[in-house]
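Students often ask what a 'structure token' actually looks like in practice. Rather than answer in the abstract, let us consider Prolyl oligopeptidase family serine peptidase, a protein of 286 residues. Its sequence is given first.
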Amino acid sequence: MTGDWKRLLGPWPERVDPEPETVESVDCGSYIREKVVYSVEAGERVPAYVCVPKGLTGPAPAVFGHHQHASQFGVGKSEVVGLRGHPDQAYAPELAARGFVTIVPDALGFEERNWSRDGQGNVSWWEASTRLVRGQTLLAKCLHDITVALDHLVSRPDVDATRIGFLGHSYGGRMALWAPAFDPRIVASVSNCGCIPFRLSATHDTGLQAETVVPGFVPRYDLDDVIASYPSTTRLLISATRDDKWSRGAAELVVGDQVELALYDGGHEFTEPMRARAYDFLTRHL
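Now compare that with the structural description of the same chain:
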């Protein structure tokens, strides 16, 4: 039964030549922040920031940084690189200071990929429902887009393609659990405050995020099965807090010796000590 659940995500988008283009390069002192665009599907270009530490002497380890949700649909990649939003979410510059190259795209429905009239509306349920009636899922689309971003990352001469990590908070923490099950290039992943399993999500204060609605998944599977399908070389850090509803059930997901748990007092946050632990984990495994 291992891996059978993957078929429930439905068909993935067709791959196209990403044709990456660098449209901006900004000197940020200790690192360069590039803005790149690339194709994820025919006619669909995605913007992302790539932060490259200065002074690299060879290919460096790299991390995919996934932004949070927070119902802030006009904010995405810019928060992770410190241009907007909460300073505790600006972890790409901190990773650059530690020698990591980072790529931070907008997820579908956020920031430059939000097609609502004012660029602030919740388009995720539209994106999910229009796929569901066609036998597709938004999750497959989101994971496809992550894989294409990693394609660009590993194609770069400043990146060591054997040392790829993933880091995300909240929505990003959810994707940090799913992505390694589909892309074996991710050898170390950190999920912060986004690990609640499906079996604990049928409550009025949590529920499901549009991006993770997979018809028929819950009767037989849960996030334990997703984590259990990782390649043997992949390591996962679940970073969670005791008062965060999106961290419920964190200890239940420690399946096997590939998974570490860091449990903190506090709420839905990504504090400096939590980030430091995440960076140490990535440094250890990349």
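One point worth highlighting: The chain has a mean pLDDT of 97. Ask yourself how you might have guessed this from the sequence alone, and why that guess would often be unreliable.
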